[in-house]
Structures are given as structure tokens and as C-alpha cells.
Amino acid sequence: MIPKEAINKIIEYSTIPGTSRHHWGTDIDIIDGNYPRPQSVLEEENFYGNGPYCKLKEWMNKNSESYGFYEVYSQNPKRKGFKYEPWHFSYAPVSKPMLNAFQKLDIKNILKEENVLGNEYFTNDFINKYNLENILDINPNLK
């Protein structure tokens, strides 16, 4: 793959270095440790139907918001950015202020200063689109 294609493939599920919500300490990927781990843990089919984590997912859908946790990357067909992640939840009371602070950062310059591999492909247009689609096109309850 040429670098731009590789970057676009990577950001289907993964973030550009330094932009992960997990690094804020507010987001977690949740599985049910009471079941044997499938070969590939974070796959949508594990959370539905007869998947090993379907009961956990049902409980999370019913109860997580009452504890302040919200699914970040929903199944909304109009949502862009990262693909659907039924395992990824964010603790809103802390992640909302973190998102607000993150939006004030000059990510393009930070990536350049830190000499992140591939940063020369992070044009202003790319960063703007990445922010709109991958950082901000999330569950509205987390904004």
C-alpha cells in the first residue's frame, strides 16, 4: 500500500498516535472474562447472537449509562470515522472535559514536533477530516 492508503486503513479502527481516547484514561474496551477468549476478541460477532459476550453487551446496553458509561462508536449508519466498536465505552463525566481540552490542541504540529512516522501525510485537510470524522463523530452523549 502507498502511505496514504495504509494510514486510511489503519484509522478504520486505530487512532493516529497521541489521539486515542484510551490514553485519556476515560475509555475502556470491555469483554466478559467468564468465557473462554475467542481467537480474535474484539470482533462484532462476539457481542451478538450466540457470541461469548452477548449477555455482557445486553447488560451494558441496559445499564451502562446509569453509571456514566456510553458506547463511543455506535452503529449509527450516518456516523463516519472509526468502525463500530460494541466493546468500547467511555466514562462521560471525565471524557467530556478531556474532549474539550483535546479540541484545543494543535495536533498537526504536535505530531510533527514528535516526529511521528508518516506525519508528512497529515495535511491540514487530513487532520480536519480526521478530527470531524474520527474524534468528533461519536455518541452525542459524549460531547
Describe this structure in words.
This protein has 143 residues and is mostly helical. The protein contains five helices and three strands. It has helices at residues 3-10, 54-63, 92-103, 107-113, 124-135, and strands at 27-29, 69-71, 88-91. A three-stranded antiparallel sheet has the order 1-3-2. The radius of gyration is 16 Å and the shape is globular.
Contiguous helical run count: 5
Number of domains: 1
User: Alpha-carbon distance between the termini?
Assistant: 35 Å
- Global morphology: globular
Write down the secondary-structure element order. HEHEEHHH
Mean pLDDT: 95
Class of secondary structure makeup: mainly alpha
Residue runs with pLDDT of under 50 for 5 or more positions: none
* Lateral arrangement of strands in the main beta sheet: 1-3-2
Number of strands: 3
- Percent helix: 25-40%
- Rg from alpha-carbon coordinates: 16 Å
Q: What profile does the largest beta sheet have?
A: 3 strands, antiparallel
